[in-house]
Automatic annotation (TrEMBL):
Keywords: Hydrolase, Magnesium, Metal-binding, NAD. This is NAD(+) diphosphatase. It catalyses: a 5'-end NAD(+)-phospho-ribonucleoside in mRNA + H2O = a 5'-end phospho-adenosine-phospho-ribonucleoside in mRNA + beta-nicotinamide D-ribonucleotide + 2 H(+). Its cofactor is Mg(2+); Zn(2+). The gene is nudC. Residues 163-288 form the Nudix hydrolase domain. One of its GO terms (molecular function) is hydrolase activity.
Length: 309
């Protein structure tokens, strides 16, 4: 059981809408579709309004007569309706009798339908980037949103910048048999464990990053690095790339960079029991609490634990 695959597509990697990238530069199509377009509002805390397992979409035409610089184009729904997003205060559903609640993506991800998960994840990442990219990285000049929110340009020099993505690896280290390493960051409460993760450095491959990060964070030398899957993580703009790798249980843990407070080898039975207890939000007295279902870490752990079941 050295190798395994993810059993399911990670929650934030689901696809339920057409990104319709060809429309981002088609001004006529954007204007024509705006009158019937739907608008996703994301507040300053990255919260959205949810109703019945779907994100609440309002009328774009009520926001403005035509697409403006504050709006970002997210794509098209199955019926061809355009969807845009803006950073703005939330408004209730158009149906006053509909029940709704305000949640952020970390809490609402598991209950959203595929289209809503994609729209909220994309909107959160794009709007977070715009909040931090209002000035040119070259000369500090104010930039303007263009291409329906998918790039920003310096009107004077013409320098164009695109949404930034920060790639990070996340890895389950196992012994090739019945044990896997889980670690607790220093800032986490007791009993909360997850996988080793870290950002990719300039000039570094994903696989090399896995080897370096595991060595830096917990002191293990890993081999046989294999890709599992990826998931956007728009907090604020990361892409989590999942792997598993082989480690030696006889090698001593070393926490040299100060990020990890403790780590241990857990058996598959222990992990299965912890998974059955729920996640980090549960009231379980278990010595091991695991990440919530929105994270790719949870899917990787569940997929490994299911081997041989």
């Amino acid at each position: 059981m050295t190798h395994f695959r993810l059993r399911n597509v990670p929650l934030l990697s689901r696809v339920g809408a057409d990104r319709a990238d060809v429309l981002r530069t088609d001004i006529d199509a954007a204007v024509a579709g705006w009158q019937d377009a739907r608008l996703l509002r994301v507040d300053h805390r990255n919260q959205v309004l949810i109703s019945g397992g779907a994100v609440v979409l309002g009328s774009a035409a009520k926001w403005s007569a035509t697409p403006d610089e504050r709006a970002v184009f997210l794509g098209r729904l199955e019926d061809g309706t355009h969807v845009w997003a803006v950073r703005a205060a939330l408004e209730g559903p158009e149906d006053p009798d509909a029940e709704s609640e305000v949640l952020d993506l970390r809490r609402v991800g598991p209950i959203l339908d595929d289209a809503s998960a994609q729209l909220v994840s994309t909107a959160t990442a794009l709007l977070n980037w715009h909040d931090r990219a209002r000035f040119s990285a070259i000369d500090g000049a104010p930039t303007k949103s263009v291409k329906s929110g998918w790039s920003r340009i310096d009107p004077v020099t013409g320098h164009e910048e695109f949404p930034r993505i920060d790639p990070a690896v996340i890895c389950l280290v196992h012994d090739g048999h019945d044990r896997a390493v889980l670690a607790r960051q220093t800032m986490w409460p007791q009993r909360l464990f997850s996988l080793v993760a870290g950002f990719v450095e300039a000039g570094e491959s994903f696989e090399a990053c896995v080897v370096r990060e595991v060595a830096e964070e917990i002191g293990l030398s890993v081999t046989d690095v294999h890709y599992l899957g990826s998931q956007p993580w728009p907090f604020p703009r990361s892409l989590m790339v999942g792997f598993h790798a082989l480690g030696d249980p006889q090698q001593e843990f070393v926490f040299s960079d100060g990020e990890i407070a403790e780590a241990d080898w857990f058996t598959r039975a222990e992990v299965r029991q912890a998974l059955a207890e729920g996640d980090w939000d549960s009231e379980s007295p278990s010595r091991l609490l695991l990440p919530g279902s929105i994270s790719i870490a949870r899917e990787i752990i569940e997929s490994w634990a299911a081997q041989g079941a």
